[in-house]
């Protein structure tokens, strides 16, 4: 239980069934400073008090478990390293696997159910294995955050709110007389706190690393940023003196540069395919048979929380072990470091997830990119072409500093595949 309305109603619904219930409140963040006094962060004391009040009404025993050390080591520190490199991680996704269905599950009896207030559903397949499904209330569906949990964790999970609408949940909270009935939904990362700016919080752990903010197409410099972790792809960049709003199209990690474009729907904000690393199937030993075939298989990819039902894509594995997802239509603001969740074609069954490593304007196999270098201040020369072949028209990238499709080179030309 978290002290919110969802976990409170979950407890109330289960209290009416033939279960032996015990409530657990996880304290995942230590808000004490070096002097041992609390500072602004997670309002854990208020949360814990609300959990105890609800449990007294429902006559359920409760306990608090301090998992702050496990959270720091398994979730926050890896996320911090990702932010430092300039990508945008998803701590909440890994918290469910490593803490709620990891460290907390280890604290409970192995033959016990673990019920949460997530808006998600579980169903049993014909082969007797559990499937994670989207919630009935699509506007509150939280299956995205559960996509990394393992099959044995899903097997013992219960999601009593999966078939309910959020409005009904609040009505039930009032019906049971729970003190959390009118409590607002929590937003953002728990360890940041509701009154603290995310960038201000991270600045306590990451040293500033200033770099240029440049125009994506022309390379013109507009300003200076204090660190790539201040920005994510698709975010508005606050730049003074501009005639129109500018948005982040790319973060170039090797040069520590933020590239921006005018307008929130600029074509440079869209990508057609992406490489995904560390892909984890919920059924780890049974990925789709077509996954390793040249054409792959068709599914739906959700690149961020609440991004509709996921977008149709073709999914396949490369010889290097990477998962490649190619969209049927370009997608906006795909951020490396974020988690992509894979659904089946129906959009209901969540099959697994991975971390977006890099993105492309087009299918990588459809073009051959050859690194070039700047010669005497002139336009780079293309690589030699085979003898006897016609002279190709080379589509030079508009920005001579960056090819938006590639992450590693400063100078690129795009050549046809012969």
Automatic annotation (TrEMBL):
This is tRNA-5-taurinomethyluridine 2-sulfurtransferase. Belongs to the MnmA/TRMU family. Residues 200-261 form the tRNA-specific 2-thiouridylase MnmA-like central domain. It comes from the Eukaryota. One of its GO terms (molecular function) is methyltransferase activity. It is an enzyme of class 2 (transferase). GO terms for cellular component: mitochondrion. It catalyses: 5-taurinomethyluridine(34) in tRNA + S-sulfanyl-L-cysteinyl-[protein] + AH2 + ATP = 5-taurinomethyl-2-thiouridine(34) in tRNA + L-cysteinyl-[protein] + A + AMP + diphosphate + H(+). It comes from Fistulina hepatica ATCC 64428. It holds the Pfam family tRNA_Me_trans. Keywords: ATP-binding, Disulfide bond, Methyltransferase, Nucleotide-binding, RNA-binding, Transferase, tRNA processing, tRNA-binding. Its EC number is 2.8.1.14. Residues 287-356 form the tRNA-specific 2-thiouridylase MnmA-like C-terminal domain. Residues 367-379 have a biased composition (Basic and acidic residues). Catalyzes the 2-thiolation of uridine at the wobble position (U34) of mitochondrial tRNA(Lys), tRNA(Glu) and tRNA(Gln). Required for the formation of 5-taurinomethyl-2-thiouridine (tm5s2U) of mitochondrial tRNA(Lys), tRNA(Glu), and tRNA(Gln) at the wobble position. ATP is required to activate the C2 atom of the wobble base.
């Amino acid at each position: 239980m978290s002290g919110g309305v969802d976990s409170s109603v979950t407890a109330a619904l289960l209290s009416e069934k033939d279960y032996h219930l015990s409530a657990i409140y996880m304290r995942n963040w230590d808000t004490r400073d070096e002097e041992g006094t609390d500072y602004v962060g997670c309002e854990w004391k208020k949360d814990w008090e609300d959990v105890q009040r609800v449990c007294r009404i429902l006559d359920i025993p409760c306990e608090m478990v301090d998992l702050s050390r496990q959270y720091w080591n398994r979730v926050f520190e890896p996320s911090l390293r990702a932010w430092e490199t300039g990508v945008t991680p998803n701590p909440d996704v890994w918290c469910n696997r490593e803490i709620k269905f990891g460290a907390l599950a280890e604290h409970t009896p192995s033959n016990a159910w673990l019920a949460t207030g997530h808006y998600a559903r579980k169903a049993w397949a014909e082969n007797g294995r559990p499937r994670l499904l989207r919630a009935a209330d699509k506007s509150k569906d939280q299956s995205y955050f559960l996509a990394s949990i393992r099959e044995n964790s899903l097997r013992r999970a219960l999601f009593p709110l999966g078939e309910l609408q959020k409005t009904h949940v609040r009505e039930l909270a009032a019906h049971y007389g729970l003190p959390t009935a009118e409590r607002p939904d929590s937003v953002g990362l728990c360890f940041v706190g509701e009154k603290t700016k995310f960038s201000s919080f991270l600045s306590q752990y990451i040293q500033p690393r200033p770099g240029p903010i440049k125009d994506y197409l022309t390379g013109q410099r507009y300003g200076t940023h204090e660190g790539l972790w201040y920005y994510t792809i698709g975010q508005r960049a606050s730049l003074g003196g501009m005639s129109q709003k500018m948005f982040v199209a790319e973060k170039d990690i090797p040069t520590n540069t933020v590239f921006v474009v005018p307008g929130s729907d600029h074509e440079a904000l869209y990508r057609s395919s992406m490489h995904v690393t560390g892909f984890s199937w919920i059924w780890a030993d049974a990925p789709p048979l077509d996954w390793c075939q040249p054409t792959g298989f068709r599914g739906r990819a959700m690149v961020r929380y609440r991004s509709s039902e996921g977008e149709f894509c073709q999914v396949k594995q490369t010889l290097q072990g990477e998962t490649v997802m190619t969209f049927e239509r370009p997608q906006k603001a795909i951020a490396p470091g974020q988690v992509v969740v894979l659904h089946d074609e129906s959009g209901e069954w969540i099959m697994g997830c991975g971390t977006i490593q890099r993105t492309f304007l087009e299918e990588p196999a459809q073009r051959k990119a050859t690194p070039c270098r700047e010669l005497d201040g002139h336009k780079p020369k293309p690589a030699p072409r085979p003898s006897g072949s016609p002279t190709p028209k080379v589509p030079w990238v508009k920005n001579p500093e960056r090819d938006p499709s590639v992450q590693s080179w400063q100078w690129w030309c795009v050549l046809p595949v012969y």
